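User: Please run a holo structure prediction.
Assistant: Happy to. Please share the sequence and the ligand.
User: Here you go; the ligand is 4'-deoxy-4'-aminopyridoxal-5'-phosphate.
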Amino acid sequence: MIINQIKEVIGNTPLLRFTSSQLPIPERTEIFAKLEFLNPGGSIKDRLGQYLVSSAVRAGKLKAGGTLIEPTAGNTGIGLALAAQAYSIQTIFVVPEKFSLEKQALMQALGATLVHTPTKMGMTGAIKKAKELAQEIPNSYLPLQFENEGNPKAYYETLGPEIAADLPETITAFVAGVGSGGTFAGTGAYLREKYPEILLYGVEPAGSILNGGLSHAHEIEGIGVEFIPPFFENLPIAGYETISDETGFSYTRQLAKDYGVLAGSSSGAALAAAINVAQKLPAGSVITTVFPDAGDRYLSKDIYTRTKY
Ligand code: PMP
């Protein structure tokens, strides 16, 4: 395959099948994981970056020489920086200090400038700082993935149709991690139209509030919320699976060691949640989940070698 631009290989990722011979799930049940770490920027957010930048350029909100500013845990920054390059647009990302150094280095490698906010202020602190910067910097645009309808739309138009094309017969449940909520809401809405009976389960780490728990620090990176995403308003959600750091990291290590899948901790959490859902559903169910990013961007956090979990 010959391509002219790296963006041509964003999306169209494969679904990896897991069966009852590999995992503690009912016989004939299958779990399919969409391998989003195979995108060129190493995460699902390459899709979002392309979508948000190209729609802002089309709408005249961003022009060559302008500046895109965004609060991000890292993967969105990488996806946005990749997309912005093609239009000669500068990028500034506001990153809470706790997020992985590798993701920060990758954003910088793609030409981005980083601004840090204190870990204890969470994503809310990063959002506030990004809004302040956008007021100060001329010709700037703030996509704000946490409230931009383009976020779920990016997945409604790409990830959802890809899954439906590969699994045309039926899907019993869709299980996906919730960070901004875009992946879950956009893909969930598309699949619900295709398969009206499908059950939608969100995944959060312990320390996130979706199941009514108290907000506290967690080590699984990329998922977990401090507020309910606005995209969930009209979504019929079957439930949320709350996964402990211990369980999430244990599955992340197992994915690497037993299946050659070098994914981040939100993928381990997604697999743990998909197994929980599979155990609640009848034998023969088809469950689809998403492995959002690659694990090598967490090596400095001992993702595969930690002994604590
Ligand atoms: N996993 C990882 C590693 C992520 O970076 C993100 C995005 N923060 C997610 C999952 C969740 O995706 P979304 O923002 O679409 O909910």
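The pocket of 4'-deoxy-4'-aminopyridoxal-5'-phosphate is lined by residues 73, 75, 177-184, 221-223, 264, 266, 292-293 (CB under 6 Å).
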